[in-house]
Every structure is written in C-alpha cells, then in structure tokens.
Amino acid sequence: MTYFVTTQTPASRIATVAGGILILLLFALPFFAGRGTIRDMFFILTMLTLAQFWNLLAGYGGLVSVGQQAFVGAGAYALFALVILGGLDPVLAVPLAGGAALAVAVPTAFFAFRLNGAYFAIGTWVIAEVVRLIVAQWKSLGGGTGTSLPRDATRDMWFVELIEASLGVRSAAARDILAYWISLVLALATIGGIYWLLRTRRGLALAAVRDNVDAARSVGVDAARMKWIVFLTSAFGTGVTGALIYLQKARISPDAAFSVTDWTAYVIFIVVIGGIGTIEGPIIGVLIFFALQSLLADYGSWYLMTLGVLAIIVMLVAPRGLWGLLSEKTGLHLFPIRRRLQGGQLNRSEDTP
Amino acid sequence: MIWVDTIAQGVLLGGLYALFAAGLSLVFGIMRLVNLAHGDLIVMGAYLILLLVTLLGLPPFLAAAVAMPLMFCIGWCLQKFLLNRTLGDDILPPLLVTFGLSIALQNALLEGFSADSQRLPTNAMTTASFQAGPISLGVMPLLTFGSAVLVIIGLNQLFYRTELGRAFRATSDDATTASLMGIKPANIFAAATGIALVIVTIAALYLGLRANFDPNVGPARLIYAFEAVIIGGLGSLWGTLAGGIIIGVAQTVGAAINPEWQILSGHIAFLLVLLVRPRGLFPRAHD
Who among B97, B104, B260 is closest to A305 (CB)? Predict the structure, then answer.
C-alpha cells in the first residue's frame, strides 16, 4: 500500500455528481422555465458571483472592502462606453469591461493598501465615491442622470437571433436567456476558478497569510504580492459581473451603478449569513437572501433592517455562518481544500491496535 | 478677496467635520474599533434632538443638552452588550457588526421618520452673520468651530487630567496589564463609547441647525469623519481638527470653482495627503 494525499471526501464525490446534474439542469432551464424564473435565476447567479469575489477578498485574503461598488460601476460604465461610444457588440464588451475595473483597482489598491485593517474598509469606500463622482461628470454617458443602451445595439446582439429562432421566443425574452446563460457560465467559472486557486500553492499561501501574516512570511510567502493578486482578481471578476448586470438592465445611472447597498451591503450580508471563508457559504447565503427578499420585498426598509440585524446576530452567534455551523456539526465539505494523507501504514495501523 | 472669504468658510466648515470625527477618533484610539455606524449614529442624534424639539417644544440647544445623557446611555449599552463581544484579534467581527448596525439603523430611521429631509428650527441669532474686514462670518459656523475646539480641549483634559483618562490611556496601551491594576476594560470601553456619543450629539446639533438631513446622509458623514481622522494622524485630536479644516477648505474652494466638484475635491485632498503622508500629518509615535 502506498500513501497518497487527497482532498476528496465521500461527500465531495457525491457533490461532484449532484453538482454535474444540477449544472446540466441549469443550462437546460430556459427550455422549460418562464421568463420570470430566468430573471430570478439571473439575479441569484450574479449576486452569487459578486459574493464569491467578496468572499475571496475578505474571507480568504483578509481584505474587508466596502467599495466593491467601484468595480461594479466601473465595469458597467465601461460596457456602456464600449457599446455607445465604441460601437462594440455588448456580448464582447462584457469581458472587456473587466479590464476597466482592473484599471480602477490598481490605483485603488495603491491608496487603500496604505491603510491598515479596518481603515482599509472605509478607504475603499472613499475611492468608490471618488469614482462615482468622476463618472457623474462624464457628459457623453448621461452625466449624473445616466443613460440607456441603444435599442439597435441590444437587438442585434450576438446569439440573440439564434436563441429567438431555436427557442421560439421574442427578442426581449431571448436577451434575458442570453444574459442568464452568460451569468451561469460566469458563476461556474468563478466558483471553479476560486476552488482551483485555493487548491494550488497560491491558495495555500493565501490561507497562511490569512491565518498569520508573520508566520506566513517567515516561511517565504510574499504576503504583499498575495494581497495584490487577490484584490486585482476580485476587481476584475466584480467588474465583469457589473457589466453583465447592466447589460441585462440596459439602463444605467451613477447612483445605481455605484450603490453601496446593492453591490456591497447585500453581498456582505450574503457572505456573512451563509458563511465567510468557504465556497459553500455564499451559495447558501444567496438562497437565504433571495428567499428573504421574496418574502419581505413589500416591506421596503423593514427588509434591509432585518438583513442588517440578521448579519449582526450571525456574526455574534456563529461567526462562520450557517454553512460553518453545519460543517462543524457534520464534518461536511462539498468543496474540500484540506489535504489529507491516506492509504499505506496510516490505515493499517488503525486496523491493528 | 473672495478667496479669503472662501477659505475662512472652509476653515469654519472644518470645525463641523472635526466634530463628526472626534468621536470616531476617541473610540479608535482606545479600543482600535472602527465604527462604520458612526455617521448613522450622528443622524440618529439629530432625529433625537428633533423629536425633543417637536414633542417638548424645547429650543434646539436645550434639547441637545437633554439628549446628551440619553445618547451616553445608548452608547454605553451599545458597547457593553454588542460591540465588546466583537473585540479581538480578528478585524472582521467589529467591521461587519457595525456595518450591519449602520444598515439596520439607517432603515429604522427611514421607517420611523420617512425619507423627507428635516431641519432643526433656527432663530435670528443662529442665522445671523457679521462682517470682519473683507469676510462675512456666520454666527452658526463660528459656534460650530468654537464647539469643536472646546470638545478637543475637553477631551485632552479628560485624557491627561482625570482618573478616567488615565484608565483610558492604560487600557489603550495594554488592556491585559490594565486589568491587572483593577481596571475593567469592558466598562472602560463602554464609558468611551458613551462619551463618543455625547460628542456625536453635539455634532448632530450643528448638523441639524446648519443643513437639511435625512436618514440617508449618515454614510457621507462617516466618510468625512474618517478622512479628517486619517489626515490628522491616528490618535491626535488636534490633528483631527487640522484634518477637518483641510477637508472643509478643499470642499469650499472646489465648490467655488465648480459647484459639482465640492465633495470630490474634499476626497481628492484626502487622497493627496494619503499619497504624501500615509500616516497622516501628526501621527502618534507608536502604532
């Protein structure tokens, strides 16, 4: 018998199979679900992607940003600029918009990394405000009141005609389906990518930096470099998601695209309630968030108040969130990261006491 | 000559920002806690004063005096029963709990007082102004600035002349050792937040007297306060006043050039200071 190192667990093997089936179902969803369901799923998937990136920042990188709206807004405005001013196809502009978020992220990191711990949080917020105020001066994109995507640009978007013909739906519904499929690919790529990152050497370094910066540095981890990598990755992904969200909305204004409530508060609540520092947490969090929103949507500010109070309670009672509670009780890990030594003497010595 | 006037207005506006910032600075200095709900607490204070003014018919200044002990109790309880439980090596719990508190408070105010903007009633005295050479000074901005200076003097006296101040400094330096000397850090922290909310009440009074407020203006006050603290250097109260003045002058000068640039130029001034002096203008020797 030889030793081998594995990260798999029985639960993770079952989760892989179940996840595969779920993914197929999600891709097939537009063939049997109505437009309302598709829109809801688009919302869930884009919020999940934003939550995964914030979780990568705060849960794994220890960088609590309250300025994610800077990247959502930058990505969204880049999409509008590329389509309206550059004449690009919106579908092509979505990934390119990530570059704009990256361009905002470099100076943001340069300033915000000068601030320690908690002050980093407000620092990112200040920079998001600066970006919002500058964008509001951009007259060709509507200034402070915002603008809409031109109708012909959204109508002639790639793939829309194909979806119209093959699914027999109207143009508006086809656009929703296209946005949904992109959001599904994006969410899967994000979860897969983060999971892959955490299982590589970089991921190990990241966990080490999070747990103890000094100890990590003493074994040769470049902590500052890890912070940059995590911050820029998260900004890029958040920017692409922002562009996609506003591709679907087709209407933008600085106050909406740079809203701290929509793009940061909700995202933080999703991660905190679900479980910070896990991949499963944001998935659970977004489902609870969506359920609460459907239940309490009519109560306006009561809804946000409930979310705020719930986040406080979770943080005090169960700092690792609902998924943390569950996996502590059951030892369940759907996305295991921990490397375990199996086989060989290890198992035999357990057999013969 | 118009520039002298603009800068004078900016300096006086800085007094208001220093008042916003003093409570934040105090709490951070003693327990390294950044309270993201600070701005919303200021707005809550303004509504409390408004409530006392409308229900009991008190003049605003008297209403603020009545509100102070109430706000002290709120701060004491907030720290003792909620925020103390988040303190520790991990920076996540205090940040996320105060952020949750900020959102909850904002929406509670929205539910209770609606989104309409409000203002504390003013009289002839508070809207008066007089001419000093080429510049015209409002009585209210002068009062604000004077209050800011008094608050900072008072806090410095408290820190360096009283037993409580000694306990504050000891707990700030080393909470464990301080507790060996018979100081209960939990109570010291509660008292500090209580005092911070008394200062918040003063800030709220001037906020409500000088401009309209609604439940959503809290986060922007937090950001100004934060910028003033960072520009001044952590732990220096006079530095915080200087920071407030820099933000105030940048804002009024920016607004004089183009009204749309008012807020933006305040932020830019902050980023410039951060670029040149990352630790602020008057940083404390350690930490």
Answer: B104
